[in-house]
Aspartate aminotransferase family protein
Amino acid sequence: YTAAADQFIAGPTNAEVSEADRSRVFHSWSAQGALNPLPIAGGSGCMLWDFDGKQYLDFSSQLVNVTIGYQHPKVVAAIQRQADKLTTIAPAQANETRAKAAELITDIAPEGFNKVFFTNGGADAVENAIRMARLFTGRDKVISRYRSYHGNTGAAIVATGDWRRIPNEFARSHVHVFGPYLYRSEFWATSEREECERALHHLERVIQAEGPESIAAILLETIPGTAGIMPPPPGYLSGARQIADRYGILLILDEVMAGFGRTGEWLALDAYDVRPDLITFAKGVNSGYVPLGGVIISDPIAHHFDERVFPGGLTYSGHPLATASAIATIEAMREEKIVENAARIGADVIGPRLQEIAATREVVGDVRGKGVFWAIELVTNRDTKEPLGAPEMGKLKAGLLERGLLPFISDNRIHVVPPAIITADEAGRGLDIIDETLAAHRP
Ligand code: PLP
């Protein structure tokens, strides 16, 4: 990485970039006075570097996004080729790049999903999936989980179930349920099976109490991501499907974070015996090289809009630079067997090593995940499971950065979510840094 890094070192310094950023950029999800964003000058593969030449192994994938790593040459070239040809086109026009991206995406989806509605990212994918479900069923309410994240726009932020939820005008038609999460079971369950059965019972009771005829959709992240990476127990998603069918409710699976290779499957749902009605995606579809998301639509819902107008779409939906990058990303993932790599690294390197770390570091309460999608849950006391507080998490983050690892920290968890191209050596190096940092941690 050194040659590429040199080129950036010749530019501005960290201090100059930080100062310019602080003076003009208003940051998301932040109190503006307390900002200290990490300056990043460039990247390659799983590595990033700052303007002073310090390198970081990226264990965050930039909000769990950059599956194929930084500056993949085939994807960069595809964006450049498309930029030479046509840099923008409105959603109403037909364009071969958009059609090809839709074809590759539906090829990945289960049988009977043949249409893609493109959006600019994950939140508007969720917005539009909810809108489709409401128009299709003629019903209003949506059920989603506490401990979920679905995006930061109108209906998506209301659907979100963790502390980020912001009540707004959509809130009245939204209901939350507890999903399965054995480590902090809301159901006094002591096994995955019990947790699953009770979570499904709870889901059905809430539907009955709310009035099944008022509910359009159950919206679930296939594996909740930002809220804690909790792979569902066997039977939960298929059980939710059965309950949905019993009451004429649609099932939307949100694959924005878990989809496109992250779990070691093309779609996270491939590992479960479940068939949703709508699938939302973004992030991994093109590693976020250009903003892109969408909804993969099952045939009955797509046909519902054959004679009816679907009232949705934004100026940039299905942007040619974005869809060109999606084609190149999916092709590169196939050719380079990146999804298989994610599965192997998860099973052979990350999973076993995290179990070892959990066994030796008292501060670790739980580890869970698959592929390149893992969470380490940190606690002050293993019996009470008291979450490690924000100041302690801040110190751990500083320790990880100091040692050259860029982490994804969410509440009391370190999420181990590197690019899916990561090698066993790189993954081992990052896990060594995490272990060393946890070992140095003093309460
Ligand atoms: N859905 C899920 C499961 C997500 O993880 C996210 C973002 O992290 C979103 C939706 C929102 O995506 P975006 O930030 O692209 O709008």
Summary: The radius of gyration is 22 Å.
